[in-house]
Specification:
The chain starts with about 25 loop residues before the first helix and ends with a helix. The longest helix is centred in the first third of the chain and has 19 residues. The strands form 4 sheets. It has a 6-stranded mixed β-sheet with strand order 6-2-1-10-13-12, with helices on both faces. A 3-stranded antiparallel β-sheet has the order 3-5-4. The protein is α/β, with parallel strands linked by helices. It contains 10 helices and 14 strands. The protein binds ligand AHZ. The site of ligand AHZ has 30 residues, from helix 3, strand 2 and strand 7.
Length: about 300
């Protein structure tokens, strides 16, 4: 018989780094003027890796079954998440954002300008968030769109029942048969299929990079109007023959666009609510350009519709 050579490498346990006992400063004031003797608490590289990966993989495990998945963390998706998480701490909400930086188009107010315009009554949403603005009569102006987006984002991320998976794209929708008398091939949406965005972008030149999944009884899609990543879910509904065709976003008309988006925010097929500018592609609604009240209030309405579905 062949001699079996033991090639196993003895695994050294991580050397636990002792907690700092050398009189580290507890406040910034205690550090003042003592920079010559300054040191950080000790660390080992593996502790940093484990601090990140353990939490991420535990979140992946936990959110593989979610109550609600929000696709897209633009102004509408984040407003939806804020309303839902605030009202219902019992719901587990996963947000999937393709980009590294959540916020979508709401880091600037329009073109490369900083101020953000919101028509009344969307000032009510800003009041709830605690974002200051100047009142110009029929509309209000936040001094920088980034103040709105960063405040909203920080509040959403502070809720213990929300997990944001950024740099992650929704590649497909999970479906289950839900035939009706008028449509025997109807489906309901039962979750999302995800992948690292960098992987999603390389399906043409790399193989064997299968996706991951999240099951959820309700998906809220707010992926913006058509573009390299936009209008994702509604385009997929057309290709899987659950929507006959898209209406296609119409030209800019601030007067009609915002009312239409808020009013039409709804469950488009069973298990899938669509909000924000993605909806303009379904209904053929106009765009509004750089005025964000409809994104916030479409989020409020999407949350309201979601709770109706969840509590049904
Ligand atoms: O990265 C996208 C963005 O952050 C993300 N997204 C798109 N497809 C995705 C996918 N998986 C995961 N397959 C995806 N994430 O969705 C976010 C959409 O944000 P947005 O700011 O583009 O859309 P919104 O509807 O929240 O806000 C629209 C803002 C606009 S556009 C407009 C006009 O063109 O006239 N006017 C306003 C106010």
């Amino acid at each position: 018989p062949l001699a079996v050579r033991d090639i196993s490498v003895p695994v050294k346990k991580d050397v636990a780094v002792q907690p700092a006992t050398n009189g580290h400063a507890k406040t910034l004031a205690e550090m003042e003027d003592k920079w010559e003797s300054f040191t950080f608490s000790p660390i080992r590289e593996s502790q940093v890796s484990r601090a990140m990966t353990r939490r991420y993989f535990s979140d992946l495990d936990n959110y593989a079954e979610s109550d609600i998945v929000i696709v897209g963390a633009g102004s509408c998706g984040l407003s939806t998440a804020y309303e839902l998480a605030k009202k219902r701490p019992d719901l587990k909400i996963a947000i999937i954002e393709a980009s590294v930086s959540p916020g979508g188009g709401a880091w600037l107010g329009g073109q490369l300008f900083s101020a953000m315009v919101m028509r009344k009554p969307a000032d009510a949403f800003l009041n709830n968030l605690g974002v200051p603005y100047e009142d110009e009569g029929d509309f209000v102006v936040v001094k920088h769109a980034a103040l709105f987006t960063s405040t909203l984002l920080s509040k959403v991320l502070s809720f213990p029942n929300v997990k944001l998976f950024n740099a992650t794209a929704v590649e497909d929708l999970i479906t289950r048969p839900a035939p009706t008398a008028s449509n025997p091939t109807a489906v309901r949406i039962a979750g999302v299929v995800t992948n690292w965005t960098l992987v999603t972008m390389h399906h043409d030149d790399q193989s064997c990079m299968d996706p991951n999944t999240i099951n959820a009884p309700l998906v809220i899609s707010t992926t913006g109007h058509d573009g390299p990543f936009g209008a994702f879910s509604v385009k997929r509904l057309v290709s899987m023959q659950q929507l006959e065709k898209l209406g296609g976003m119409r030209g800019l008309d601030m007067r009609t666009a915002e009312d239409a988006i808020v009013k039409r925010t709804r469950e488009v097929v069973k298990g899938l609510i669509v909000g924000g500018m993605e909806l303009s592609e379904v209904d053929g609604a106009n765009r509004m350009g750089p005025t964000f009240g409809a994104m916030a209030l479409s989020g409020v309405k999407a949350a309201e519709e979601a709770l109706k579905v969840i509590d049904e």
